[in-house]
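Re: [help] complex structure
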Amino acid sequence: MPSKTINPEDWLAALDESGFRVTTVQEILIDIFAHSEYPLSAEQAWDMARQSRPKTGRATVYRTVEKLENLGLIRRVHGYQGCSHFVPTLPELMMLFICLTCGRTDYLDSQPLENLIQHSEDASGHHITESRLQLFGACVDCQQNA
Amino acid sequence: MPSKTINPEDWLAALDESGFRVTTVQEILIDIFAHSEYPLSAEQAWDMARQSRPKTGRATVYRTVEKLENLGLIRRVHGYQGCSHFVPTLPELMMLFICLTCGRTDYLDSQPLENLIQHSEDASGHHITESRLQLFGACVDCQQNA
DNA sequence: TTCTTATTGATACCATGTATCAATTAGATA
DNA sequence: TATCTAATTGATACATGGTATCAATAAGAA
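Output below.
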């Protein structure tokens, strides 16, 4: 339930603009990540990729995931079934909520995080250049169905 | 530079109260984690433990680290040299800052995080039960020495 | 001191991710 | 369209980080 929609075309364009080739495997993987409601691991993405293209290699998937991460198109989720799952980078500064019941993700308004960082910089004197926030719990739907 | 100090005695007491035995290896490891200024991995802790007790086994260290984590005495740091480093749990709700230059940790006032969670719950309708925040950058000292 | 059992160390093992390298293919050029 | 070149791929072997097993040890209650 991302608040903005993701356009796989843009990801392909980003690949191209960075001088990478647009290949079948990469198209498939981009489609998989861009449309998943849940954080995906490379292994899961591999399984899904082989459904539409059985001979897809494992190493290729790991390489592509790394490439997408380096391009900033997907981002690693920490603490949800380990630290090996990825979600699309929706806003640059992400306040990601993950439901521990259904596993679905929601991108919350990140203004509060921006404020928090600003405040903490002022209060501590440290210069904050990077942040990682993950929120877990029960989403609206799962609360009702409980 | 934790804002509160850590008392290894308390950790040993926590072990004891949970029905675990207080052993030499565990005392050594507790001392190592409680006094480190930097996040430590199990592998690093193993190296340090063997300096004072050479025959210490690797599996034992991994098991002890897991035990300390389960007891809530140490907590995993995400995104600092992977996700395998641990720091003492100082406040229950942690706003941990890690300097990317010197690696030292600082526990910031976590009231802003409490507010953020409260605000996000109200705004999204999700019930937030768990959070993970990590801040990175340049600490006060490293900014001056730059 | 004895006894029971949690804990330990050595080892083998497993899972996740990475390096290698010949074969393939995107896409630029003719 | 055919040709060419290097990025990409798939298969495999490998490395790393962590776990299961099991006999030997030691904590701490009796």
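The first helix of chain A runs from residue 8 to 17.
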